[in-house]
Design goal:
single chain; 304 residues; alpha+beta; Heat Shock Protein 90; four-stranded mixed sheet; 4 strands; rod-shaped
Length: 304
């Protein structure tokens, strides 16, 4: 299963700072206050790339350079005009920064809401499957313990009656005995089929988890996945997949991600990989620590 999403805009600090150098050069080379409009566009990018705290320092630096350039061109008798123009375009930059930050925050809230909704849908799907699995196991157990017990007792009684009955009545007993044995065999077959049909469709749950994630092309590979019947294992795999995708989105700047479940000997292995840039040495946060505890509780291991 492959899910395609729109790619995220490419963050290029080198282009960002090249723009800054060009804008500063135009400030001092061109005696036209409209050049300061470029700084407003630049400030929008600063908010996107560096966040509010660093962008605020960039804003102060931008206003200071703008003021210096205006004083350079309009010094002396036009000093007041230079300060007014600098203040006006400085306010425009403040407005651009605040508006962009509000937009970013709204986007983050939408993404967080979408992530929570996907997790809820995936969890509900897994819960639905496990509930159905529990019901099938209960029915199979009842068939085996109750109906199977009664049929076995009936067969024993019919065999006793078969030895004590003569003539035409014995033929009826033999027919009843044969039918009872056939019915018991069919009950055992049905019980076996019910127990064999308790595989959890984890791929469907993971599919709902990743459906709707923006900026990422996701490939889910279950071609070598073993049948998963254990609810705790299924839940751990789903949660680890969820945390892995979250880390890819937050830290790797990747455009592609692969989720694969397979077998390594008698062990079930979940692998989450991406094409993002390798980061610095990883210090486990709450997410990775939670995954480690969850996997360890079922006798597994986690590595990154």
């Amino acid at each position: 299963m492959r899910i395609h999403r729109a790619r995220a805009p490419c963050n290029r600090p080198d282009l960002f700072w090249t723009q800054a150098v060009c804008i500063v050069a135009l400030y001092f080379l061109v005696n036209n206050s409209l050049v300061a409009i470029l700084s407003i566009v630049w400030m929008v990018q600063a908010a996107e790339f560096y966040g509010l705290k660093r962008a605020t320092w960039l804003l102060l630096g931008s206003i200071a350079i703008l003021t210096a350039s205006q004083l350079y061109h309009r010094g002396g008798t036009e000093t007041l005009d230079a300060l007014v123009i600098s203040a006006m375009f400085g306010l425009f930059q403040v407005f651009a920064l605040s508006t962009t930050q509000r937009t970013i925050r709204e986007r983050e809230l939408r993404e967080e809401t979408g992530a929570l909704n996907r997790e809820l849908v995936a969890t509900r799907e897994l819960l639905s499957q496990t509930s159905a699995q529990s019901e099938r196991v209960r029915i199979a157990r009842d068939l085996h313990d109750i109906l199977g017990h009664h049929m076995t007792a009936l067969i024993l009684n019919l065999e006793v009656a078969n030895h004590k009955t003569e003539g035409e009545g014995r033929e009826k007993v033999e027919l009843s005995l044969a039918l009872a044995k056939l019915l018991l065999s069919e009950i055992r077959t049905a019980v076996g089929e019910l127990r064999e049909d308790d595989v959890i469709d984890l791929q469907q749950s993971i599919g709902k988890l990743v459906a709707g994630i923006p900026t990422l092309e996701i490939d889910v590979d279950f071609s070598t996945a073993p049948p998963i019947r254990n609810v705790e294992l299924a839940d751990a795999l789903l949660r680890c997949t969820q945390e892995g995708i979250t880390n890819v989105l937050r830290h790797s700047d990747a455009t592609k991600c692969q989720i694969a479940i397979g077998l390594d000997g008698d062990k079930c292995v979940l692998t989450v990989t991406d094409n993002g840039k390798p980061g610095e040495e990883i210090e486990p946060g709450n997410g990775l620590k939670g995954m480690t505890e969850r996997v360890g509780a079922i006798g597994g291991q986690i590595s990154w």
